[in-house]
Write a structure and sequence with these properties.
Layout: H1 17-30, H2 34-52, H3 56-74, E1 91-94, E2 100-108, E3 114-122, E4 131-135, E5 148-149, E6 157-165, E7 172-180, E8 185-196, E9 199-202, E10 207-208, E11 219-224, E12 231-234, E13 239-247, E14 259-271, E15 274-278, E16 304-305
Parallel strand pairs: 6-16, 10-15
Antiparallel strand pairs: 1-2, 2-3, 3-4, 5-9, 6-7, 7-8, 8-9, 8-11, 12-13, 13-14, 14-15
């Protein structure tokens, strides 16, 4: 059974209209920066050339040019607030507290797998560049539950960021992401990003999946590539909700090529600082079982907090 919220632990959705309006005005001004707009145009061209390349060698060469050009663009003073909105293949997510943004994308390979790229750009007082490049080390991570750093990243293309504050402590951030796997299966992830001594750390033991089972550091879903999966934060039920995945045939348990949604939903809810699994969630609105490939990115700042009331 999932514990009910203590009066001091309430899950809230905070959308500050005044802040959103001010931030939108600032973003509009910065998005008119001619220098950054010129860089964005070049990046858009390189991005399309990368995805249209005919083989791995050409693809990775173009992507290397993209990375170099992106870093050059980010070196422009004040680039942190430039949205790069034209780069539709690239996910740019800013944390609602405006402390950092995470930029992620993927490159498909000839073998049917994917290579992930990304960086974390920190906000700095003088607008100078501070980056933490992310190195996809998926193929060498034998334990998907391991806590990792930027150099050992379990790559994904993130589409939603949710900050969590527990009793006023240093916040951590939940990232929802798409992780194409191979020609048989697709994955989605619930990742946790925190900063320790100024360095990014991925994974945190906050996921309660069942009683008497050790807490997990992240959650990875895997299912048949021809199917779709909903994974999003639903503010109406104050939970991270997702399709319940099952095999087509009970004999195929553990063979994720045969997994798909059974049209029911489960969820994770913040309870005493942990994310507790709740099964058979009754949604107050209709979540689409025909979810888009990457999920649906949100522009509003969604915040999960524990506060007194």
């Amino acid at each position: 059974m999932i514990k009910t919220f203590n009066s001091k632990l309430l899950l809230l959705l905070i959308i500050c209209c005044a802040y959103t309006k001010l931030n939108a005005q600032q973003t509009t001004t910065l998005n008119n920066n001619p220098q950054l707009t010129a860089y964005q145009d070049s990046l858009l061209l390189l991005s399309e050339e990368t995805f249209n390349a005919k083989d791995n060698l050409s693809r990775f060469e173009k992507n290397a040019q993209f990375v170099k050009k992106l870093v050059t663009a980010l070196k422009v003073n004040g680039s942190f607030n430039y949205g790069f909105d034209s780069l539709k293949r690239i996910s740019v997510l800013k944390s609602p507290d405006n402390s950092f943004r995470i930029i992620t994308w993927f490159i498909p390979t000839d073998e049917g797998s994917y290579r992930y790229y990304g960086t974390i750009q920190m906000a700095t007082p003088n607008g100078s560049l501070k980056l933490f490049p992310l190195t996809d080390n998926t193929s060498n991570l034998t334990d998907v539950n391991a806590v990792t750093d930027a150099k050992n990243w379990l790559g994904a293309r993130y589409y939603e960021v949710l900050p969590v504050i527990v009793n006023g402590k240093q916040p951590y951030f939940i990232l929802l992401g798409w992780k194409g796997n191979d020609h048989k299966t697709t994955k989605k992830v619930i990742e946790v990003l925190s900063f320790e001594k100024g360095e990014p750390v991925f994974g945190k033991n906050i996921f309660e999946t069942a009683k008497n089972i050790p807490l997990k550091n992240r959650v990875v879903f895997e299912y048949n590539k021809l199917n779709a999966m909903t994974l999003t934060f639903d503010k109406k039920v104050n939970m991270i909700v997702f399709d319940h995945l099952v095999p087509y045939d009970p004999k195929m348990v553990g063979n994720f090529e045969f997994y798909a949604s059974d049209l029911s939903f489960d969820g994770y809810k913040l309870v005493y600082g942990k994310l507790s699994l709740s099964e058979n969630v009754q949604l107050k609105n209709d979540a689409s079982v025909n979810d888009e490939m990457y999920g649906r990115p949100v522009k509003a700042s969604t915040v999960i907090t524990n506060q007194n009331h």
